[in-house]
């Protein structure tokens, strides 16, 4: 998944980005509200972690702007320990969940997983499609119980396909979720990663829809 982290404290921002990347996601960061607002307007994100106490433009204003523009990605807001009014105002402004600072990173990741599950047909952290199983808590995949050795790019593509099984995802859409910002975006490289991934999955798991993209199909191996 592609996650936007908006936090002006450099150390915490780096910790958040590292933890979310380690969970198998692509991360983009913003250190102020104006940058966050622009990125949310121009880019597609699956979820946002949004601190409310931001410079330039405050987090609540950013959130209200996104919702007014019809941007409906899940937003997890970060609030100060005693700022209960921020929690109420944030939820009224369109936040999907909140977390009070300081917090344990595992709790943030769990809340983020819960928000992302709302976007998919999966109702737990364990996703299944035929013989393929994805453990989103551990960022691990297996086929019939046998662990798969995947690169970070292969894992991200597989998780995207498994989030929307049976749906066609274009090369451009996969590329946008694979790379942060505008860096290295080349839809042609998606063919390479999909080709490598195919070799590790049951035959027929990834179908190419000519001119449109790829979709994941449930294939049983009989093992």
TrEMBL record:
Q: Name one GO biological process term.
A: regulation of DNA-templated transcription
Q: Which GO terms describe its molecular function?
A: phosphorelay response regulator activity; transcription cis-regulatory region binding
Which SMART domains does this entry report, sorted A to Z? REC, Trans_reg_C
Q: Which InterPro entries match?
A: CheY-like_superfamily, OmpR/PhoB-type_DNA-bd, Sig_transdc_resp-reg_receiver, WalR-like, WH-like_DNA-bd_sf
Kindly give the CDD domains that the UniProt entry links to this protein. Answer: trans_reg_C
Note the superkingdom of the native organism: Bacteria
Keyword Phosphoprotein among record annotations: yes
Keywords tagged on the record: DNA-binding, Phosphoprotein, Transcription, Transcription regulation, Two-component regulatory system
From which residue to which does any coiled coil extend? none
Pfam families in alphabetical order: Response_reg, Trans_reg_C
Q: Name one GO cellular component term.
A: protein-DNA complex
**PANTHER family, sorted:** REGULATOR OF RPOS, RESPONSE REGULATOR PROTEIN CARR
Q: What is this protein called?
A: DNA-binding response regulator
Query: Which organism does this sequence originate in?
Result: Caldimonas thermodepolymerans
**Lineage, broadest ranks:** Bacteria, Pseudomonadati, Pseudomonadota, Betaproteobacteria, Burkholderiales
């Amino acid at each position: 998944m592609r996650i936007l982290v908006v936090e002006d404290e450099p150390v915490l921002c780096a910790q958040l980005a590292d933890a979310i990347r380690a969970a198998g996601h692509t991360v983009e960061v913003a250190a102020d509200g104006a940058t966050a607002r622009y990125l949310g307007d121009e880019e597609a994100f699956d979820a946002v972690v949004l601190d409310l106490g931001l410079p330039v433009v405050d987090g609540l204003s950013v959130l209200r702007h996104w919702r007014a523009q019809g941007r409906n990605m899940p937003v997890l807001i970060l609030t100060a320990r005693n700022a209960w009014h921020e929690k109420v105002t944030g939820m009224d402004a369109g936040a999907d969940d909140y977390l009070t600072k300081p917090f344990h990173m595992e709790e943030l990741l769990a809340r983020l997983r819960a928000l992302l599950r709302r976007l998919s047909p999966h109702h737990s952290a364990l996703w299944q499609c035929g013989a393929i199983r994805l453990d989103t808590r551990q960022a691990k995949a297996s086929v019939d119980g046998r662990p798969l050795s995947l690169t970070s790019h292969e894992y991200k593509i597989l998780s995207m396909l498994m989030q929307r099984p049976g749906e066609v995802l274009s090369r451009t859409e996969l590329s946008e979720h694979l790379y942060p910002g505008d860096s290295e975006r080349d839809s042609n490289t998606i063919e390479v990663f999909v080709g490598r991934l195919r070799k590790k999955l049951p035959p027929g798991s990834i179908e190419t829809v000519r001119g449109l993209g790829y979709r994941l199909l449930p294939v049983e191996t009989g093992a």
